[in-house]
C-alpha cells in the first residue's frame, strides 16, 4: 500500500469532521464571491448597538469542506463573545 500524501490525509479528516459538524449544527454557510462565510443572526438585545439583523463572518477558504470545519469553531467563538 502506498503512503498517503499529508495533504490527502488532511482533506480526509477535514471531510470527516465536516460531515459530523453538518449533523450536529444547522449553521448557514454561503459562498460570497470566491470565499465561504458563516451567517449569524444578531441577538435582539444587541439591535440597539448593531442595526443589522445578520452578520457575515469570513471563513477565509474557498473549499466547502474546510469551510464546514472552520464554521463550527467560528460559531463557538462568536457565541462565547455574546
Structure description:
Helix content is 45%, strand content 21%. The protein is α+β, with helices and mostly antiparallel strands and 82 residues long. It has a domain at 25-81. The protein has a three-stranded antiparallel sheet, with helices on one face. The longest helix has 19 residues, at 6-24. Mean pLDDT is 80; it is low at 21-25.
Which class of secondary structure composition applies to the elements? Answer: alpha+beta
Q: What kind of sheet is the major sheet?
A: 3 strands, antiparallel
What amount of the residues lies in strands? Answer: 15-25%
Helix content: 40-55%
* Total strand segments: 3
Tell me the distance between the termini. Answer: 49 Å
Lateral strand order in the biggest sheet: 1-2-3
Which stretches are low in confidence, meaning pLDDT under 50 for 5 or more residues running? Answer: 21-25
Radius of gyration based on Cα positions:
15 Å
What's the SSE pattern? HEEEH
Shape: elongated
Integer average pLDDT = 80
Distinct helical segment count: 2
Amino acid at each position: 500500500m502506498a503512503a498517503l500524501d499529508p495533504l490527502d490525509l488532511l482533506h480526509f479528516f477535514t471531510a470527516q469532521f465536516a460531515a459530523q459538524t453538518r449533523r450536529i449544527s444547522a449553521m448557514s454557510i454561503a459562498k460570497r464571491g470566491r470565499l465561504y462565510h458563516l451567517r449569524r443572526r444578531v441577538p435582539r438585545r444587541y439591535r440597539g448597538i448593531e442595526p443589522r439583523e445578520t452578520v457575515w463572518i469570513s471563513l477565509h477558504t474557498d473549499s466547502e469542506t474546510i469551510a464546514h470545519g472552520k464554521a463550527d469553531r467560528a460559531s463557538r467563538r462568536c457565541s462565547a463573545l455574546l
